[in-house]
Amino acid sequence: MLFIKEVMKLASSSYTKEDQGYTMSTVMQEAARCLLCEDAPCSQACPAHTNPAKFIRSVRFRNVKGAAETIRENNALGAICARVCPTERYCESACTRAKIDGPIDIAGIQRYVTDMERKENMQILHAGKPNGLSVAIIGSGPAGLQAATTLLQKGYAVDIYEKAPKAGGYLTYGIPEYRLPETIVDYEVQRIVNLGAKIHYNQAIGKDLSIDELKQGHDAVIVAVGLAKVKMLPMFEHNICKESAISFLARAKESRGELSDLPENVLVIGGGDVAMDVVTTLKRLGVNHVTDVVYEEFKEFKASKKELAGAQAQGVTIVDGYVPTSVRQNKVTFKARNIDSEMTIKADKIILAVGQQADTADLKIDLQHNEVPFRAAKYRTPDPKVFATGDIVAGDQTVVYTVQKGKEVAEEIDRVLGGSSND
């Protein structure tokens, strides 16, 4: 019951507040709630070490540029994380104020600061003095973009190879516009290009270029391809009523909210953040009946509480604790995990949001016998010139955690190649 109460509170308050954003006066009021903890548990809980304690202090003193500098020095995708990070799982869960009247709205303050940074065209990050070394990065998702930024600051030349026409990976082709506007992703990418990154679009490594060719032209190669391949439940393999969440979200974003092939009744299977993106997008596109059946019970839900709250606020029906056992065309039968119960749902369309996996076959690299997520020591692969990072490496798959992986792989490459951080 406690979980449900927390979700309903989010649905009626902070979800709407974040959509509206802060003004200078309201962000000052929120920052003034900070207790200025000496040990800063919020900063310790941020995977990317964005240091909210420090940038909130700057906001309290009306030093917005100082706040932006703190964010950017630690997180190249600060404007993106401000919108999509599950802060209730990280910094806000550690906020001391949460024990009094609710945590500081860290994401909202960070969003205000990065919005002002963009509005005022603040130029904060600068490339380091060229050191004569170069790194190729395969993939322009959050890990690849952060790794590029950290390396550029250390003086490396960076080439990013992206198989799609635009950079950003899932940021561009997966996260819905209402959560992450395309203009914000474009802004973040352009900042990194301005720093010196060269992005080569429509380049599929393993087809258009080989890793061996990248190794010949660079001192190191980073594989940051993400999890772009759909996981499919075998029973749905040849079902004509089904579509993957990745395919649906990409189509919805490309169509800019004008999909014309959606029926009145859609069944979604899955309970992570991607599933929440799917069900909320369906409702925003005008689908009347959206039902989401989830393997986990609410007490073990994987999705962000904020995204779950948003889905429920849109009127999505969510059934927790059921697993599909059979499907016949558009009828799916589910069995309860923990009670003796069974149900069958008939829908005009079925969307599967049951996870993604890496597709590294064309790369012809050994990720410990293709074990994904790759459990790498210091992001190293068996090839001394090839490193791996991002979602294909073991660890949390949120954007903010992936940013940290991008920083860490860059630091390891700098250490190995004898750059500025070599000890």
Automatic annotation (TrEMBL):
Catalytic activity: 5,6-dihydrothymine + NAD(+) = thymine + NADH + H(+); 5,6-dihydrouracil + NAD(+) = uracil + NADH + H(+)
Domain of life: Bacteria
Pfam hit, one: Fer4_20
InterPro entries: DPD_II, FAD/NAD-bd_sf, FAD/NAD-binding_dom, Helical_ferredxn
Domain (FAD/NAD(P)-binding) ranges: 134-398
Location of the Dihydroprymidine dehydrogenase domain: 15-121
Alphabetically ordered keywords of this record: Oxidoreductase
EC numbers: 1.3.1.1
Enzyme class: oxidoreductase
Gene3D superfamilies per UniProt: Alpha-helical ferredoxin, FAD/NAD(P)-binding domain
Subunit comment: Heterotetramer of 2 PreA and 2 PreT subunits.
Functional summary from the UniProt entry: Involved in pyrimidine base degradation. Catalyzes physiologically the reduction of uracil to 5,6-dihydrouracil (DHU) by using NADH as a specific cosubstrate. It also catalyzes the reverse reaction and the reduction of thymine to 5,6-dihydrothymine (DHT).
Protein name per Swiss-Prot or TrEMBL: dihydrouracil dehydrogenase (NAD(+))
